[in-house]
Amino acid sequence: MKRIFITGFALMGLFQLRAQINSTDSTNYKSKKLKVEEVNLVSSYYNQNGDNSAVTGGIGSEHLSDIANTIDVKLIKYGETGIKHTFDVEAGIDYYTSASSDQIDLSVNSSASSSDIRFYPSLSYSRENEEKGTTFGAGVSSSSEFDYQSFGGNIGFSQKTKNKNGEFTAKFQTFIDQLKLIEPIELRPPGHEGYDSANRNTFAGTLSYSQVINQRLQIMLVGDVIGQSGYLSLPFHRVYFADGSVHQEKMPDTRLKIPLGIRASYFFGDNIIIRAYYRYYSDDWSLKAHTADIEIPVKLSPAFSLSPFYRYYTQTGTKYFKPYGEHTAADEFYTSNYDLSKFESSFFGMGMKLTPFNGVFGLKHFNTLEIRYGHYTRTTNLVSDIISLNIKYK
């Protein structure tokens, strides 16, 4: 992964040079030429352990590690009529190893399924009329790995109120996915070589409204309707029945999800912010969930702040889930994936942000360094840790 870091910093150096060429002494100047507004380089390391792997029927190691790197570049320009054009280009790459995926073939100690690389670029564009408070946007994305290929698109519109204290947003997204049907080794037809494929489509509509209540309080309401169709199982998930027989996970070919949320930020003077979030989720697989999240950024100095955070989550579990060895032939659909079971979870940690006046490490345009660490626990005995690093150039 060193090559990714080197490439990211080299690109930032190039952007810094271009920004110096396009810079001006007038803070009110609106550039008619495309210029770099902001660059974010984010790297993270994730590690998890558990003993309820769906690949082996709800039992077995869930150990997984993931190294991710993304670079996000935002460019802006103003047209002759004062319209603001924003382009956002992002590219990410993950490398992960998975003990559970390694058990797709039980006859070998290690297989090609034990690790993979995922590449996910995206491009978005928005056109904002700052005088009228309207914004139109669109974007495309892609995600590729060995057994999964996804293409996405989105369009959106937002309108601010006359006093600019409120904003309504509508967005539509779609993802067209193709899966390789990698079956557990013992369930493959004799002499069958290669993999069949199947499609999965996702369509999502989002409506949100944000409002500045007063100088201290801001809120946002958001609602989604998400519909999925196609192959919604995971082909390499085993399900063991009560009679000892092994089967491939089988789930319905449609799913409707409806999440509703509210977000609020309250400012205690200049140094403390309370950010809170609540979401209710329901779908037609009989899964219902509640999420409550709070984060309290505290500025300890003009250049340094800490942000402790905590998130609580609980879900009822889908009606199609049963643990290892409890499904029977009477079940039309069946899974032993504990992500769809009843559980509670907690995620807590700390963020640290450094914004020195002279720039990070004395580099003026690298104005922010942020490190975040989080620890996750779940009542199904799954635990994980994640640490991330974000360097911002502006």
SSE blueprint:
Elements: H1 2-22, E1 35-49, E2 64-78, E3 84-98, E4 115-129, E5 134-145, E6 148-160, E7 166-181, E8 196-212, E9 217-230, E10 238-240, E11 246-248, E12 254-268, E13 272-283, E14 288-295, E15 298-301, E16 304-315, E17 343-354, E18 366-378, E19 383-393
Antiparallel strand pairs: 1-2, 1-19, 2-3, 3-4, 4-5, 5-6, 6-7, 7-8, 8-9, 9-12, 10-11, 12-13, 13-14, 14-16, 15-16, 16-17, 17-18, 18-19
Short account of what is shown:
With 394 residues, the protein is mainly beta.
Description of the structure:
- The protein has 394 residues and is mostly beta strands.
- It has a single domain, classed as monomeric porin ompg (Porin, Beta Barrel), CATH 2.40.160.40.
- Helix content is 5%, strand content 57%.
- It has one helix and 19 strands.
- The strands form two sheets. Strands 1-2-3-4-5-6-7-8-9-12-13-14-16-17-18-19 form a 16-stranded antiparallel β-barrel.
- A hairpin with a 4-residue loop joins strand 4 and strand 5.
- The longest helix is centred in the N-terminal third of the chain and has 21 residues.
- It is globular and about 70 Å long.
- 14% of the residues are buried.
Strand content: over 45%
Which radius of gyration do the C-alpha atoms yield?
A: 24 Å
Q: What is the count of DSSP helices, taking H or I runs of 4+ residues? A: 1
Question: What CATH architecture label applies?
Answer: Beta Barrel
Contiguous uncertain segments of 5+ residues = 1-27
Features:
mainly beta, Porin, 19 strands, 57% strand, two-stranded antiparallel sheet
